[in-house]
UniProtKB/TrEMBL annotation:
InterPro entries: 4-hydroxybenzoyl-CoA_TE, HotDog_dom_sf
Family: Belongs to the 4-hydroxybenzoyl-CoA thioesterase family.
Family matches, as PANTHER family: 4-HYDROXYBENZOYL-COA THIOESTERASE FAMILY MEMBER (PTHR31793), NOVEL THIOESTERASE SUPERFAMILY DOMAIN AND SAPOSIN A-TYPE DOMAIN CONTAINING PROTEIN (0610012H03RIK) (PTHR31793:SF27)
Record key words, sorted: Hydrolase
Keyword Hydrolase part of the UniProt annotation: yes
Gene3D superfamilies, alphabetized: Hotdog Thioesterase (3.10.129.10)
SUPFAM superfamilies to which the protein is assigned, alphabetical: Thioesterase/thiol ester dehydrase-isomerase (SSF54637)
Source domain of life: Bacteria
One GO MF term attached to the UniProt entry: fatty acyl-CoA hydrolase activity
Name of the molecule in the record: Acyl-CoA thioester hydrolase
């Protein structure tokens, strides 16, 4: 499991005084960076052989400005050419959002998905959720 921390910024709040829902997907994407590094340790974006196929977020509780948010990230499932990343966001030790992202191993030259190589599959498997 990977852990990332975020400090909500004032401009990320909405008219209701809590963090806008669009911010959470950005935090979740940022929290996936350690997974991206499995594919390209130098974070060479042009060498990143994956695309995002799906994102889902459940907003469990309101998120407030001025209080740090911690995001836990890991792998839920590994398939032939795709894998599911799970996220859980906490503020004051309370679950405030959870979500998933489906990432697909992609061959940009052929413009289609391709099977995950064994070395990537093994690296991802180290972060599988066991609960």
């Amino acid at each position: 499991m990977f852990i990332s921390s975020f400090s909500p910024r004032f401009y990320e709040t909405d008219a209701f005084g809590h963090v806008n829902n669009t911010v959470v997907t950005g935090w979740f994407e940022t929290a996936r960076e350690p997974i991206f590094r499995i594919f390209t340790p130098e974070m060479d974006i042009k060498a990143l052989s994956m695309i995002l196929a799906r994102v889902e977020v459940d907003y469990v509780a309101q998120i407030y400005y001025g209080q740090e948010v911690t995001v836990h990230t890991g792998i839920e499932k590994i398939a032939n050419s795709s894998f599911v990343v799970w996220h859980e966001a906490f503020q004051n030790d309370k679950l405030v959002a959870k979500g998933k992202a489906v990432q697909v191993h992609f061959d940009f030259k052929l413009q289609k998905s391709s099977p995950l190589p064994d070395h990537l599959r093994a690296a991802l498997a180290q972060h599988l959720r066991t609960e």
